[in-house]
Specification:
Chain lengths: 75, 278
């Protein structure tokens, strides 16, 4: 006999925890990138021409967030 | 009565849920090969791109003309300037521009044409939608990323030759085991770049489709109204992801080509120093 059994729905719990903890990193990362960009533009308004570069870096970070979302369908 | 109207408008009780497709379905058979719906739509987009490009190229004149040609010229100029600023010289940009401009327009058009009304569950054949966007299918984006990396390797080898290209992964002396270890990791990195390019494009487009499907399901009779903001967001994201794909490919090419220039500059600099000493 078992000492205890898991009778609830573990899959839903796992999905929730994965989404919740997984989205911390990319969200904070994108916030930091925005912070750096705003600081740079505040000191030197000519730095706003780097918006294209910033969007590319945001896409690289956002890939991590999308990987978490895609792992939902694997579990 | 108002609450019952609201619940009636909010969700249809007969349906089971939003219709979400992640994998392609087979719609045709040619001989022994099965054609999926995203392949079919990729052919439609390719034919459209070929017709548009040939028409625009024939309409080119010295003086700017009004109309559709302006969009194509603006896009081509944008990508060519980006390549020139990444690689350093405008001449190299013009040499490599055809492939990158084409892939930019193809991915943008493929993402945007996936938002048309007929694409999706409206027209079905064999219980699967007849048309699905090419980039909303992991097979499609893997193919695009693999072809891009193949062309980057081809361009890089054409610039400097096969052996210098392989040598540039291992910078430092070859007798150092650390150099060989890092070099193998760099080669592995080339393969993971295929995965990252493919996944980024696929996930952005597929998740956009899922969001539109969910919001269309939630506003069952007012679906055009509730999903409109997300269709506009998807247009923006589609164009942005195409630009990011091309920008990252150009950066990989620029890094590979700059290594060769650096090594050539080092090799040419030494004899001059020897001549000056003697």
């Amino acid at each position: 006999m078992y000492f205890a059994e898991i009778t609830g729905n573990v899959e839903v719990l796992a999905k929730g925890i994965m989404m919740g903890f997984g989205m911390f990193g990319p969200a904070i990362g994108i916030g930091l990138i925005g912070n750096a960009f705003m600081n740079a533009v505040g000191r030197n308004p000519e730095a706003s021409k780097y918006l294209g570069q910033i969007l590319v870096i945001i896409a690289i970070v956002e890939l991590m967030a999308l990987l978490v979302f895609a792992s939902l369908f694997i579990i | 009565m108002l609450t019952s109207l609201v619940t009636r408008f909010a969700a249809e009780t007969a349906e089971t849920g939003p219709s979400v497709h992640i994998t392609p379905g087979e719609v045709l058979h040619i001989g022994q090969y099965s054609i999926s719906n995203s392949m079919l739509y990729a052919w439609v987009c390719s034919v459209l791109i070929i017709i548009l490009s040939i028409t625009v190229a024939r309409m080119m004149r010295i003086r700017p003309r009004k109309g559709l040609i302006q969009l194509f010229e603006a896009g081509t100029d944008f990508i060519t300037n980006m390549i020139a600023s990444a690689m350093g010289s405008r001449q190299k940009a013009i040499k490599y521009a055809p492939y990158f401009v084409t892939i930019f327009f193809f991915i943008t058009l493929s993402n945007w044409l996936g938002l048309l009304p007929g694409v999706g569950d409206a027209i079905t054949r064999n219980d699967t939608p007849l048309f699905r966007p090419f980039t909303a299918d992991i097979n499609g984006t893997l193919a695009a990323a693999a072809v891009s990396m193949f062309f980057i390797q081809l361009f890089s080898i054409r610039e400097a030759g096969l052996l210098p290209h392989l040598r540039h992964y291992f910078n430092g002396s070859l007798k150092n085991p650390m150099t060989i270890f890092l070099g193998l990791f760099e080669i592995l990195g080339e393969f993971t770049r295929i995965g990252s390019l493919a996944l980024r494009l696929f996930l952005n487009v597929a998740i956009g489709e899922i969001i539109i499907a969910v919001f269309s399901y939630l506003g069952s009779y007012a679906a055009p109204l509730t999903s409109l903001p997300f269709v506009i967001l998807e247009m923006l994201v589609g164009a942005l992801q195409a630009y990011i794909f091309v920008m990252l490919s150009v950066m990989y090419l620029a890094v590979a080509v700059k290594h060769h220039e650096q090594h050539e500059a080092e090799d040419h600099a030494e004899p001059k120093a020897v001549n000056a000493g003697a």
